[in-house]
Specification:
62% helix; Arc Repressor Mutant, subunit A; 4 helices; flat; mainly alpha
Length: 88
């Protein structure tokens, strides 16, 4: 009986272009979990390492996350103030 080893995704090399794409997708409202599920994107563990090693990426990532949080909070406030009409 042969056991199949789980296949790992290929490692992605750090690149400013890739980190810009990650930040753009965060700004579009995509969660980091969803981004990392894309086979063309790095694993979440790689992104965490990159954040620790690359200050410019960490700065951009933090700004993108803050904007994402503000947008979600604003949307929640709008939904509270103007609830969807009830269908009758």
């Amino acid at each position: 009986m042969t056991t199949k080893k789980p296949t790992r995704r290929p490692r992605h090399a750090y690149s400013p272009e890739l980190t810009d794409l990650i930040c753009e997708r965060l700004l579009d409202g995509t969660s980091l979990r969803q981004i990392c599920q894309d086979k063309n994107m790095p694993a979440r563990s790689a992104i965490i390492v990159w954040l620790a090693k690359h200050k410019e990426f960490a700065r951009k990532y933090m700004i993108a996350r803050q904007i994402q949080i503000c947008r979600k909070a604003s949307l929640s406030r709008v939904k509270m103030l103007w609830p969807a009409p009830v269908a009758r």
